Amino acid sequence: MNTPSGTANSGAAGDIRRIEVALRDHGYAVHIGPGARRLLPSVVRDLGARRVVVVTALPDADLPDPGVPCHVVRARDGERDKTLATVEEYCRAFVRFGLTRSDAVVAVGGGTVTDTVGLAAALYHRGVPVIHVPTTLLAQVDASVGGKTAVNLPEGKNLVGTYWQPAAVLCDTDHLATLSPRDMLSGYGEIARCAFIGAGDLRGLPLHEQIAAGVALKAAVVARDERDQGLRHILNYGHTLGHAIERATDYAWRHGEAVAAGTVFAGRLAGALGRVDDRRVAEHQEIVAHFGLPTWLPSGVCAQTLVSLMRRDKKGLDTADGALTFVLDGPDGAELVHSVPESVVRSALAAMPTGPEPTAGARPDPA
């Protein structure tokens, strides 16, 4: 399935790229490049916000200046804090500050921060504007764009959430220099899977171009299907098994690492169903391996556990008949495939090697 690329052009601030997310009733820009966070005062001014609450996982010295009076709320990044309790904590901080619908919220951090703060902003006073300043590769290329906000339950990932589009997204690539190799590795997982959903092979491109390609693809898909009624399902490529791996390892595997293994599995499953040939199956393995990402399943986790977790995941359960559903490659590109036989799923799982928790030793250097 071919998808149009997003609208990308050079911004007014030097090397910063601007990609428009053009929705039916509203839209916003994603700014990508060094120093993008310095655009925050102009974004706040354009919103007409008098004050902001900045929810951040960064130290004070690294916070962007919003250009208006602000209150700083400390956040924690990581799946263990992606909970309803965290959302309540943020909302109560908004109350103490006296935040109104004429003000705004700024989320500064990784995917957990943008997800939880986005959900808090959607719920507080039934919706206040939120600006995302993603500081991790994973959040810049995927999590902060598209308006999905959600938190986890003990039963599964992202089971409680809503759609709340940001007013703007500022992807400052300078933040990436501060990340650990493992955090960078996780972000590459979302970049690798883009090759199979319309972005093409991004290997060899500078990192900022890889981010822009991923964002442009997502912007184009979201513009056509904001609320997951059809086309947007392709963005879940590799995520059904990926979420199961995260849960099965108690989040010892990072999101992008698990999605990478899920992408390899998706290629194998598509091959087993006769949707793609052996060359295309091998391409899944080669692209994921190029980024230093895991092409194996976690050792010590049985197939039954993974299948059970995939059944609980909102991306994997076919509510019509209880069968498993996957986004899989095929003659017309990636598409949602219903009622995949469990026996084929188990065989594809059994064909994958197992191994330890990933490390970041083989990742490419940022460019």
TrEMBL record:
SUPFAM superfamilies with a match to the protein in the record: Dehydroquinate synthase-like
Q: Please name the GO terms of the biological process aspect recorded for this protein, alphabetically.
A: amino acid biosynthetic process; aromatic amino acid family biosynthetic process
Q: Does the keyword Amino-acid biosynthesis apply?
A: yes
Q: Provide the 3-dehydroquinate synthase C-terminal domain boundaries.
A: 206-315
Cross-referenced Gene3D superfamilies: 3.40.50.1970, Dehydroquinate synthase-like - alpha domain
Signal peptide coordinates: none
- State the UniProt keywords alphabetically: Amino-acid biosynthesis, Aromatic amino acid biosynthesis, Lyase, NAD
Q: Which cofactor does it need?
A: NAD(+)
* CDD domains found in the cross-reference section: DHQS
The 3-dehydroquinate synthase N-terminal domain sits at: 75-184
Which GO terms of the molecular function aspect are on file?
3-dehydroquinate synthase activity
Q: Does the keyword Lyase apply?
A: yes
Sorted alphabetically, which InterPro entries does this protein's record hold?
Dehydroquinate_synthase, DHQS/DOIS_N, DHQS_C
Q: What is this protein called?
A: 3-dehydroquinate synthase
Q: What is the lineage of its organism?
A: Bacteria, Bacillati, Actinomycetota, Actinomycetes, Kitasatosporales
